[in-house]
Design goal:
The protein is α+β, with helices and mostly antiparallel strands. The chain has 8 domains: 99 residues, no CATH class; 67 residues, Nucleic acid-binding proteins (OB fold (Dihydrolipoamide Acetyltransferase, E2P), Beta Barrel); 70 residues, Nucleic acid-binding proteins (OB fold (Dihydrolipoamide Acetyltransferase, E2P), Beta Barrel), CATH 2.40.50; 75 residues, OB fold (Dihydrolipoamide Acetyltransferase, E2P); 84 residues, Nucleic acid-binding proteins (OB fold (Dihydrolipoamide Acetyltransferase, E2P), Beta Barrel); 84 residues, OB fold (Dihydrolipoamide Acetyltransferase, E2P) (Beta Barrel), CATH 2.40.50.140; 74 residues, Nucleic acid-binding proteins (OB fold (Dihydrolipoamide Acetyltransferase, E2P)); 53 residues, no CATH class. 27% of the residues lie in helices and 32% in strands. It is built from 12 helices and 30 strands. The strands form 6 sheets. Strands 3-2-1-4-5 form a 5-stranded antiparallel beta sheet. Strands 8-7-6-9-10 form a 5-stranded antiparallel beta sheet. Strands 11-12-13-15-14 form a 5-stranded mixed beta barrel. A hairpin with a 6-residue loop joins strand 2 and strand 3. Helix 11 packs antiparallel against helix 12. The longest helix has 33 residues. The N and C termini lie far apart (177 Å). The N terminus is likely disordered.
Length: 659
């Protein structure tokens, strides 16, 4: 100001008047500029200032009053004090406040409203009314693909100026600060909101809602089952907030809820018109192993796998595919009409109705095995026309076997029609009828005494069932397995599946059974054993089995005998042990019963008795000889003492005889 006085050489009072006028003009211009921004932003700055100045004078008396007051304050302003650094005067403070009100004030770490003034593929330029504009990444607006210039958006001011002088703004953080309030409000008001599907996750999708990552369950994406979640990634959709967990800050949204109300009404309309036998068009919604779910337009029905085709199928996808449209017939539904049974095959004629009228019992037919069971096989002779071959009609054999032993699924077979019921749509077939019955000529094929090889098929406690050839079975009684061995169970002698030589003993045509023998292939050894194992003969034997009632003794030539416990006592008083070899005496032999009774104790007992008997015999002879000599030589000279001696000798001899 001093320099200005020196240059113009004017009095101080006149200079102050000019400065006051200049200040007044600046204040009026600033007021006009503020008004201009509020009325018409697109008008040029110079034109806006002129129009604002006119409006301030003509239309806004109050503003003019403020401007007049500002001029008055400026006129009263103590410039000399200002030059000296004094800024405490009331006029100075009021002038500074009026000037500050003409500027837009923003602060860091707060949320303000901004205006989109331009945008490109990567960035959005935002005007928040500050001296410079800010830039926000376009990625923060992914949830709103319809963003355009002029839209108002919420902005969080991170920094008014970084080291490069750039203002740092964030739309994502602004949304996050207010997101929970908005989410809760949306839940309370049942509001429809928009969200951006970010990615897949286990069981559903992650959705960006107001900057919060919400969970969209797979079941809540649509009323139809979703097979490919990836097609939804990157899309913006409308949702409803269905659940909020404040403790874990979890949000669950649903798109399905938006369309359920409409579908529920459609469902009610459809259900009210349902009738059995009604034909409707539907769409394949889901395919399972047991059937197909059909969408009838908001109502689901099930076509069971057995109602898809008249023929046998292993899986419904052989007939239908997903999203396929087809006509179905209503077979049944419950009282609430919530479970609807549908049919597809019922829309076509039954194959039995097209079965040839000339087909009759006894005819031969060809078909394919479609189902196997233990009791038989189902053969399809035409699409939808099946006959059952019972396992008993697969072979002439009477031996119990499973149907899987004869046929398998997919096999082509020829069979004879045994029964045919067109009304019940049932048919029974047989395979064995196309082969000759071996029992028709059994006498010539397997006569009495004929020898054959057979296969062991089964065991019983009383014998072995064998099969000589298919359809010809026989029984070997356990007593006809061996001449010599005592067999408790047939499994001790042979095994299932083994081959065994047999001879035909008897033929039972009525029951289709043969009585067979195995031991009869050899001569009866008991004719020879009768001469070898005679009673009282002694043989070496081995104890092969011990039990309570005695022991089994293995003798030479493969024959076995039996000994009771008291006949197993050895000479020292101990009992015979298992696998011990001892001498045994035959005390009983029965050819008819094929039984030999043995005794070990009798061997040494009989020997002892023989020795004692021989000793007594010798003693008796000696005594008689002495008596005779006494009688002959001393009879004449006998005295009383001699007579006494003879009497004592006689008593001794009698006592010895008693022993």
């Amino acid at each position: 100001m001093t320099e200005l006085q020196n240059e113009n050489l004017e009095p101080k009072e006149e200079l102050e008047t000019q400065e006051t006028a200049l200040v007044t003009e600046e204040v009026v211009a600033e007021e006009a500029e503020v008004k201009e921004e509020a009325v018409a932003e697109e008008v040029a700055v110079d034109e806006v200032e002129e129009e604002a100045a006119e409006e301030v004078v003509a239309e806004k008396p109050k503003k003019a009053g403020k401007a007049k007051k500002t001029v008055e304050v400026a006129a009263e302003f103590d410039w000399s004090a200002f030059e000296k650094g004094d800024t405490t005067s009331a006029a100075h403070t009021e002038l500074e406040n009026l000037y500050n009100k003409t500027l837009t004030t923003v602060q860091e770490k707060e949320v303000v409203n901004g205006t989109v003034i331009s945008m490109n593929k990567r960035e959005v330029v935002i005007d928040i009314g500050y001296k410079s504009d800010g830039i926000v990444s376009l990625n923060e607006f992914r949830y709103n693909p319809e963003l355009k210039v002029g839209d108002k958006v919420e902005i969080y001011i991170e920094s008014l100026e970084d080291i490069k002088g750039q203002m740092i703004l964030s739309h994502k953080k602004a949304r996050a600060m207010q997101s929970w309030d908005r989410v809760n409000l949306a839940l309370d008001n049942d509001e429809i909101i928009k969200g951006y599907i970010k990615c897949r996750t286990k069981g559903g999708m992650i959705v960006d809602v107001f900057g919060i990552e919400a969970f969209l369950p797979g079941s809540q994406i649509d009323v139809k089952p979703i097979r490919d979640y990836d097609v939804f990634v990157g899309k913006t959709m409308e949702f409803k907030v269905v659940k909020i967990n404040h403790e874990f800050r979890n949000v669950v949204v649903s798109h399905k809820a938006l369309i359920e109300a409409e579908l529920e009404q459609q469902k009610k309309d459809i259900i009210s018109k349902l009738e059995k036998g009604q034909v409707l068009e539907g769409t394949v919604k889901n395919i399972t192993s047991y059937g197909v779910f059909i969408d009838l337009g908001g109502v689901d029905g099930l076509i069971h796998i057995t109602d898809l085709s008249w023929g046998r199928i292993s899986h419904p996808n052989e007939i239908v595919e997903l999203d396929q449209k087809l006509n179905v017939v209503i077979l049944d539904f419950d009282d609430d009409k919530k479970r609807i049974a549908l049919g597809l095959k019922q829309l076509t004629p039954h194959p039995w109705d097209n079965l040839s009228a000339g087909l009759k019992v006894g005819d031969s037919v060809k078909g394919k095995v479609v189902v196997m069971a233990d009791y038989g096989a189902f053969v399809e002779i035409a699409p939808g026309v099946e006959g059952l071959i019972h396992v008993s009609e697969m072979s002439w054999s009477q031996h119990l076997r499973s149907a899987q032993d004869f046929l398998k699924v997919g096999e082509e077979v020829e069979a004879q029609i045994l029964t045919l019921d067109r009304d019940e749509r049932k048919m029974s077939l047989g395979i064995k009828q196309l082969r000759q019955d071996p029992w028709g000529d059994i006498d010539n094929l397997f006569g009495l005494g004929s020898k054959h090889k057979a296969t062991v098929r089964n065991f019983t406690n009383f014998g072995v069932f064998v099969e000589i050839q298919e359809g010809v079975d026989g029984l070997i009684h356990i007593s006809d397995l061996s001449w010599t061995k005592k067999i408790k169970h047939p499994s001790e002698f042979t095994s299932i599946g083994a081959e065994i030589d047999v001879v035909v003993l008897d033929i039972d045509k009525e029951n289709r059974r043969l009585s067979l023998g195995h031991k009869q292939l050899e001569e009866n050894p008991w004719d020879v054993f009768e001469t070898i194992f005679s009673v009282d003969s002694i043989h070496e034997g081995t104890v092969v089995e011990l039990f309570d009632k005695g022991a089994t003794i293995a003798l030479p030539y493969g024959v076995e005998g039996f000994a009771t416990p008291r006949h197993l006592v050895k000479e020292d008083g101990s009992q015979a042990q298992l696998e011990e070899k001892l001498d045994f005496k035959v005390i009983e032999f029965s050819k008819a019963a094929k039984r030999i009774i043995l005794s070990h104790s009798r061997v040494f007992e009989d020997e002892k008795k023989s020795e004692e008997a021989a000793a007594k015999k010798v003693q008796a002879k000696t005594t008689k000889k002495v008596v005779k000599q006494v009688k002959e030589n001393t009879m004449e000279k006998t005295t009383l003492g001699d007579i006494s001696e003879l009497a004592a000798l006689k008593s001794q001899m009698e006592a010895d005889e008693k022993k």
